[in-house]
Amino acid sequence: MEVSPRLLVGGAPMRQRCLRVKHILFSDLGCGEELNAQTRDEIFLMGVNYLKSGLSVCEMQDFSRLCEKKCFQLPEGCVLSVEDEATVLARADAAMQDALSVSEHQGEDSLSGTPNSFSMGPKRSRLEAVGMRELRAKMRMAEILADMHDYDAMNKTLRGLFLEVHSIQEMTINSQTVDSVLLELEIVRRSVELSLGAGALEIVKTLVGNSMVSLIEHASRCMLAAQGGGFSHVALQQHQRSEETVREIEEHVLFFSIVRALCMFEDCNFDGFARVFTANGLRGAKWAPLSEELITKHGTAEVASSLGARINTPGSLPAIRHLRDFVEEFITSGVHLGVMVLFSAFAALPRMEAMELIIQVDVRQLWEDVPEACTLVQVLEEARFAEALSLASKLASSFLKTDIFACKYGELLLHQFQQAVVTEYVSSFTTIDVRKAALRLSIPEKDLQQLLHLLILEGRLSAKMDLVALVLTRKETCGDLVDVSCQCSTLLECISQSDNCTSVVEQSLRVLSLHRNRTW
Known about the structure:
Elements: H1 5-10, H2 14-26, H3 37-52, H4 57-70, H5 82-104, H6 126-147, H7 151-171, H8 178-197, H9 201-207, H10 210-227, H11 242-266, H12 270-275, H13 289-306, H14 323-330, H15 334-348, H16 351-359, H17 361-367, H18 371-381, H19 385-400, H20 410-426, E1 431-433, H21 434-441, H22 445-457, E2 463-466, E3 471-474, H23 477-483, H24 485-497, H25 502-518
Antiparallel strand pairs: 1-3, 2-3
């Protein structure tokens, strides 16, 4: 299956794109040699353009060395010349000098016009305001070092940055205001973005732990106290920027929820990873209950207002319609994340729960641009298991294998997905001929036999297998009938009361079979 280079690389944050190009083309876990020549050339060209417009000479040299090592013939326009290196070096020097000059001058804030700039509250003390300018200058330095791919220097700068933040907090009457907490959260978040750009999830894990959770919860607690009776009765003198502050907290919670989900994926906790992408999960339900309360209250009020209802009327949370744009700007590739969620949901969750999660507006936007993903969801809904297994293998090769965060665990996730599909198929029968099942599922007989044996050993399938006749017999036939007691009762009633029950029985059997094949 050939995939557009734009989907493979172009949908990720800018700082990750060159890393993704190198992973796809050169990594042993990538798939550079499996791509057709045209796709590979397009990815090469994208990588070269990123390098030429960047700040890292060492990365350009490393790219050229990898090309020679892999014996890839560079397409026309993909040669990195000495002149290109000189241009990048001059640009890097200029950026570094600019950052140093900003750091030395504590006057005008050079970052105030950027989208991620800190807001300056009117009641902030002069000391804290000066400290913020210094912190911004240091953050700018860390960002330039990240663009130069000098990650050791970047991490050292960030460590110094956090020390300064803590010292400033101690000097502001030993209490954390909402503004000061949001300042620290902003620094943590941008540090996480830089580490994600380097593909360093181990560092990310240290940044999104208990300390960050405490900051989020403290800010939410302050805002809940300020809100008092509700969003319609907020005293403006208590917090003039209440609405903006809640939205800022909501964005931080969304960001850290998805990043923490990536860390769960790294730990092979596919169940926990998938559950993050529920409406409440994306609002911090599992790790920041006060934040979830604040955001849910605010979101419900928004929905109620849009429908002309009372502000405090309970309602559904609004969909996060910008989720994909948000993910691709700050965290990772949107389509890769969508495929990861799709696989994890069907591998780890009950089928109906997985289907509900996958088709909700928030999540669907992540994977709907991948035709094979759309088809996979459809065939799973229709219980066409052989097609599902075939499509899953292709999707795993195209998206799990090409993602810098999923590549190490793609085979394991695919295996768990296959186990879930086979378990669902087997649950439709009391006795199965393994040979016929292998043909129907398009799985080698030996592989299916091993998979069933493993499911039995793990306790996920209550059955016994005749290794001579290759027949699997399930043990909990009676238990299955309990799950569909309504259909069984209808069937028995038809048999006992109807004189002409044959057609009714057949129809009931069809309904029962449909129920068993389409629900997990």
